[in-house]
């Protein structure tokens, strides 16, 4: 399951203004699941038309690859290249790696 939280960047506390939980297809491995989740997060956010979006995730390899300008030829490369292509449609965004402990509240909300 993919958890998306939309926070109000104008709010000093960064309160969540909207959230969504999306079911994902079964993936062959954790890296593929994380790549699909990243793609779905970008795809879903494109539809919201927010002016500035921060993407956070605890999969360091995925977050790093979304920032990279290099083409990825790994097994998850095509998925991440699609996500990067969609990111180019956004006016302003940021990619952050968050330690797994930092995602604890998000995971607990939907557990």
TrEMBL record:
Chain ranges of the RNase H type-1 domain: 13-108
Organism: Gossypium gossypioides (Mexican cotton)
One of the record's GO molecular function terms: RNA-DNA hybrid ribonuclease activity
Gene3D superfamilies: Ribonuclease H-like superfamily/Ribonuclease H (3.30.420.10)
Pfam families with a match to the protein in the record: RVT_3
Protein name per Swiss-Prot or TrEMBL: RNase H type-1 domain-containing protein
InterPro entries in the record: RNase_H-like, RNaseH_domain, RNaseH_sf
């Amino acid at each position: 399951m993919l958890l998306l939280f939309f926070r109000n960047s104008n709010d000093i506390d960064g309160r969540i203004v909207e959230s969504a939980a999306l079911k994902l297809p079964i993936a062959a491995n954790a890296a593929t699941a994380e790549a699909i989740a990243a793609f779905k997060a970008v795809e879903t956010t494109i539809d919201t038309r927010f002016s500035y979006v921060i993407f956070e995730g605890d999969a360091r390899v995925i977050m790093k690859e979304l920032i990279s300008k290099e083409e990825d030829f790994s097994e998850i490369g095509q998925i991440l290249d699609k996500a990067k292509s969609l990111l180019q449609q956004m006016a302003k965004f940021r990619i952050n790696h968050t330690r797994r402990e930092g995602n604890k509240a998000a995971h607990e909300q939907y557990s």
